[in-house]
Amino acid sequence: MAVPAVLISEVGPRDGLQSVKTIMSTADKIRWINALHASGIREIEVGSFVPASSLPQLADTAELVRHALTLPGLTVMALVPNLRGAQAALASGVHKLTIPVSASEAHSLANVRKSRDEMVATVRDIVALRNALAPGVKIEAGVSTAFGCTIQGAVPEDDVIRTAALCVAAGVDESGLSDTTGYANPAQVGRLFRRLRAEIGDKAGAAHLHNTRGLGLANCLAAYEAGVRTFDASLGGLGGCPYAPGASGNVVTEDLVFMFEAMGVCTGIDLAKLLAAREPLKAGLPGEALYGMLPEAGLPKGFVQDAVHVD
User: Fold this and answer.
1) First-to-last C-alpha distance (Å) of the chain
2) What is the pLDDT of residue 46?
3) How crowded is the C-beta side of 4, counted as CA atoms within 13 Å?
4) Distance in angstroms (rounded) separating the CA atoms of residues 80 and 21
5) Do residues 163 and 176 touch, judged by C-beta distance below 8 A?
6) Quick one: pLDDT at residue 308?
7) Average model confidence (pLDDT) for the chain?
8) CA 119, CA 112: separation in Å to the nearest integer?
9) Taking the mean position of all CA atoms in its chain, how far away is CA 161?
10) Helix axes 186-200, 216-225, angle to 10 degrees
11) How far is CA 126 from its chain centroid?
């Protein structure tokens, strides 16, 4: 059985659901998470520890963590924007925290009401809390608006790399780059990830890319060619940042897995079971538009997936 060459991290239960008005029931979310896990996905961002008044769609994150922890081999991840969220996440037993740190000062103030430097200080405090309470928990700082900002416009590449380096100096295990606004192009993605790897080495983290302007897969391929091996994606292409006007559409998990498998790059994910995972998502979000080219077109005639994940 082939060992997966890339890790596809499913962020739909957090990034996807925060962007839709419908509140998906906890029972439906659990069925969806179960289906994702059954397909071979081994890392899921199940929610975010934020006040329910801010994102009522994610108010049941602690309950989802409890369930997800029962699924074998699954890395259970949650986003935390501040120290209070980190305290709640660590108490819930998550395996990994993700912290958004914007390279754009304007987006940082809109998203978390803190400057970039204040967020780096928050990262330092969260790392200290992790070290004291749960040293086995991993922390990734995702540098958001790394490729441009809908509020500020262009974001200097030096600011992006500096932000990631400061987060690593603050003690995170890895720092990745996020195309929060869907502005990225493949040349830019390759260039920035090469710079990131040159700056922070093996602490360079995931590529979180959006398909807002149809370049999601091309950007993922550029990141892969630059050495990235972890990719965030969302089933059905759900997603977007409430504080980045006009941003929409994460890379579609189904399309991304198909691209890699068609290239002979093992993901460890069973495509047929992954497509089946759309059904509980549709049931939980009736009337919500789902995206994806593979679900519409189907697998090519004669296509055989060489290796899938088995426990």
Assistant:
1) 11
2) 98
3) 21
4) 21
5) no
6) 53
7) 94
8) 8
9) 19
10) 40
11) 19
Residue 237 has pLDDT above 50, yes or no: yes
Which of 260, 283, 284, 282 has the alpha carbon at shortest distance from 271? 260
Q: What is the radius of gyration, based on Cα positions, of the chain? A: 18
241 is known as an active-site residue: yes
Which two structure tokens, joined as six digits, stand for 18?
């925060």
Q: Give helix then strand counts, H and E, for the chain.
A: 12, 8
Q: Say which residue the tokens 């049931």 belong to.
A: 283
Q: Are 15 and 46 in contact (CB under 8 A)?
A: no
* Signed CA dihedral, 50, 53, 54, 56: sign only: positive
Residue type, 186: P
Catalytic residue among 149, 167, 220, 241: 241
pLDDT for 195 equals 98
Output the pTM of the full model.
Answer: 0.95
- Give the H or E element holding residue 219: helix 216-225
Can you read off the two tokens belonging to residue 203? 């602490």
How high is the pLDDT of residue 249? Answer: 81
Question: What torsion do the CA atoms of 167, 168, 171, 173 make, to the nearest 10 degrees?
Answer: 110
User: How many residues does the structure list for the chain?
Assistant: 311
Measured distance CA(240)–CA(180) in Å, rounded: 7
Report how far residue 149's alpha carbon sits from residue 146's, in angstroms, rounded to the nearest whole number: 8
